[in-house]
Amino acid sequence: MRTEIYQWIKNLAFFHVLTTAVLHILPDKRYEQHIRLFMGLLLILLICTPVFAIVGKSSQFLDGFQKYYGEEEKERMETEAEGIQETFLREAYRKELEKQIRKIFSDAGIMSEEISEVEVKITAVKDLQVKIILRTEVTEKQREAVKNGLRKICGLEEEQYQIQTSGNGVEGMGDTASAWNHSSGGGASGVGENQ
User: Fold this and answer.
1) CA distances from 100 to 32, 108, 169 (A)
2) CB contact set of 189 (below 8 Å; sequence gap of 6+)
3) What angle do CA 184, 127, 152 make, to 5 degrees?
């Protein structure tokens, strides 16, 4: 029993020396408050260790702490990994969709130099909006080919995309024309199936 008490007192003395050294080594005093808090928590654990040992719960307490801390850390890492993976997948999907849209326009006879911008917004898994800005006007035949291609190849409905031309202001397909910020300042007119 005396050796355990002597070891405990040695641990407390060593801890006090360590705490003092760490506080003097700190390059910036802003962190002193945080270090003192952390060291205080460790001191409480160090002081309570003999009490837990007497009760016989010391190893159970430390094992439980390690187990729950490990589980929390694992959950945090998994959540973080899922978020990173979702971001990469969303970005890859956005790039592939832009490439497919450019191909649809090319197949409809609208060359890539006539396309000023293709912007794809993905705000949620099912919430997808596309804005395409053209430098020239498109014919009715090209417009129908683009609409069919966007629906069949990309799975986009008319309310999910908008096509703007810089010739006569803004020409929109679908209902999202007002949802985008227009740099040209023109108004949006929907071109749906009823026109």
Assistant:
1) 56, 12, 25
2) 170, 171, 172, 177
3) 85
Bridge partners of 128, per DSSP, are: 122
- Here the tokens at position 22 are 């760490």
The DSSP letter of residue 108 is: T
Which strands form 161-165's sheet, in the order they lie side by side? 115-122, 128-134, 161-165
Are 155 and 126 within 8 A, CB to CB?
no
d(CA 177, CA 172): 6
For the entire predicted model, the pTM comes to: 0.47
Give yes or no for residue 191 having a pLDDT over 50: no
Cα separation, 86 vs 41, whole angstroms: 37
23: region left, alpha or beta (phi > 0 left; psi from -120 to 50 alpha) = alpha
Q: Residue for token digits 């209902």?
A: 175
Structure tokens, 174: 């679908």
Distance (Å, rounded) from C-alpha 22 to C-alpha 38? Answer: 12
- Computed over every residue of the chain, the mean pLDDT equals 76
Residues 6+ apart with CB under 8 A from 162: 129, 130, 131, 132, 172, 173, 174, 176, 177, 180, 188
pLDDT at 97 exceeding the cut of 80:
yes
Task: Note the pLDDT tens digit of each residue in 116-139.
Answer: 778 888 776 567 788 888 887 888
- Contact indicator for 164, 133 with CB cutoff of 8 Å: yes
> How many DSSP H helices and E strands does the chain contain?
4, 3
